[in-house]
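yo, Histidine ammonia-lyase is done. seq:
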Amino acid sequence: MVILTGNTLTLAEIKKVLFEKEKVEPTEESMLAVKESYNAVKRIVEEERVIYGINTGFGKFSDVLINQKDVKDLQLNLIRSHACGVGEPFPESVSRAMLLLRANALLKGFSGARPIIIERLLELVNREIHPVIPQQGSLGASGDLAPLSHLALVLVGEGEVFYKGKRRPSIEVLMEEGLTPLTLEAKEGLALINGTQAMTAMGVVAYLEAEKLAYQSELIAAVTMEGLNGIIDAFNEKIHLARGYQQQVDTAKRIRAYLSGSQLITKQGEIRVQDAYSIRCIPQVHGASWQALDYVKEKLEIEMNAATDNPLVFDEGESVISGGNFHGQPIALAMDFMKIAVAELANISERRIERLVNPQLNDLPPFLSPEPGLQSGAMILQYCAAALVSENKTLAHPASVDSIPSSANQEDHVSMGTIAARHAYQIIQNANNVLSIELICALQAAEFKGVEKMADKTKAFYLEARKIVPSITKDRIFSKDTEACSTWLKKLDINSFML
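structure:
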């Protein structure tokens, strides 16, 4: 059971909820804070104090006063009008994360929503009822308005959900589960949609995949080194301590551990004095990507526990302050940084692929072909990797440097953070395929050089990988191998090879 307080959710805990279906519940203390915040909003409505989003319009309509009898209609109208997203739905894991993160934000007690709102969000998580949320349509400031509106629709019995593998009308599933649609009260619609939970949820899912991919890239690179008789001296700890980046030191250490006892790696001067940069500079390049990923992790764990709606209710309603915590710039920059970091893991991987298949750069059969000329072998696998890294270069263009004014120029600078998070996820999928191609080629190269000479850890990895990708004995449809390898890597627990 993962316990939510609004302040302490970690990536490790969210991983359990998203992928291990761990149940979630709030603390009594946090729910008490929620109730006090709701009571404060209730008093504001009764006293007819003019507060943005409670009894005014939204955005450019912030100066329009709403009659007390229309406050509930205001919230429902907000949700319906803002549910204008387009495109393919977010993966269910992202939708699930959005539910969890929105509940956690409301639990901070600054939003004025009733406890029943949090309870219903967590019911959806625990019963695996996931809103259908289109991916496109958020500017990432004033929050992720369109995506979160599609989430909020489910609470009122509208929109659609994914449930038990099917896409269905929300009202049908709620009725089956004995959940009565809610009627939103003052500020609750705004509290549900005025936040960064779409970009943060997409960012969390992307980061968890990127972290796994980054570890796997090192192990795959180690197999490549064996296939190319790579020089281990470049991984000597003294070199990396001399520069001082801990992530670089750690990457070199893991590579040394993977290759411990290998008879395929060499010392400088035995075959050549130095390797190409794509081999020799693995700690420097991968280590720099780890620095970026560490930055992303830090920002995500802050944002996962942040109050990001507007206005925020303080001091039992005595202070209701309008601000801009919904602005997604911190996550937008982090997502753009992650895009670059992962794209670089793919870039250097593609260069190692070239060294594995190009007969001018190695002593292996041309293109790792079993019959060069008659059989093309891995020739076009490198083409595919090159296409993927080229696509990544366009996706890596920073979304956060763009801004388009909205709401009649009231909202005149936006983050585009959700675009950045979506593109980061696409880059990660492409990078996973590039690394799969490197692994296919590295396995074949190591086989030519002698599996019995591999290090214990890389040999164990080789034997497991060969269950997924057979040896290349003749040309075949290699897209099937790449897809199988990519799927396997996503599920692989690399810890067993890191011990």
